Amino acid sequence: MRVERLSLTTFRSYSTLEVSFPDGPQVVVGPNATGKTSLLEAIVVLGTARSHRAGQDGELVSWGAEFARLEAEVGGTAQGSDKVEMVIARTATGGGRKRVLVNGVARRPAALGATLPVVLFAPEDMLLVVGSPGLRRNSLDTLIAQTVPASAATMSTYARALTQRNNLLRQVREGMAAPDELRYWDEVVINDGAQIVDWRRATLAQLSGPLSAAHQEIAPGEEPLQLRYLTNAEPQATETTRDALRRRLIDTRDKEMWNGATLIGPHRDDIAFVSDERELASSASRGQQRTAILAYKLAQLDLLTLSVGQPPLLLLDDVFSELDPDRRAHLVRRIGALPQAFVTTTTTDDLDPALVAASTVWSVSPGQLRQGDR
User: How many angstroms separate the CA atoms of 343 and 43, rounded?
Assistant: First the structure.
């Protein structure tokens, strides 16, 4: 995939931006807080319909503006090229309403994953092994949304149902509602929750081969790397995922009403990085963690390539400074084999000279992007 042209209007610090990108690596250089990450964020939003940084969509709209407009011409698609457009209108509560068009036709945001698949490698990903479970869940769910278009709607429904069920649990605790009123939301949590868990398990199974190969490429002397799904509703014997969720919701009903929160479901699950039957979160060195994270990102790249039929767009947000020379070299080789990739950095000194020589270098300043010198 390639972003051949990008247009932004009142998006973050960009009041207006019109830029065309050639094939190959694109290196975006500039000080912190000048718009490097916002540029990549715009591409992420066009590819996944959500930001990896913003708590609410309204944060994407420039200060004082009512809406943001994002447009991209995407090359390398099944049709040869596609035009993706999105308008985000700020709401009174600080959120945002999205309108998405693909080739001039209104589409659901979930359709974007197949049009502009992306793999983002950002500084916060360096905590994937040891950080909160939410980081790992979000990373996996973002991948699923790009390979299973129907998943975005199911995940959204589950999130809304979870909010309603938690509100009702608190009302039950305060004597303002009867426990029987939970039945409807129980079914949503069980049915949609089971589907999410099954998608996660299936995606981890699909990642297994690419992950093992990428890890072997980067660290041939280390034990194989695996991803293990951890859940508090593990199926027993002949149980399905739905059966297990139903059983565990019944088991924890009193505790949930006491806590006023749903304690069982995919929102409580985790993914562990495992090597030699040990979880890396508690046993790996910092170098081993970085190897595992890099292998995971490369495995995502390979899985999306197989799923979509074209290499996705790789976005690297100031991560070269976090990697040692050997790991940088592996990443550079992968970048060189892609139709296009975007790399941000505060200085080209952090990058491999061969990568810089093969790249189109851009200089960023607040609200502006221009082609610069290597």
Answer: 13
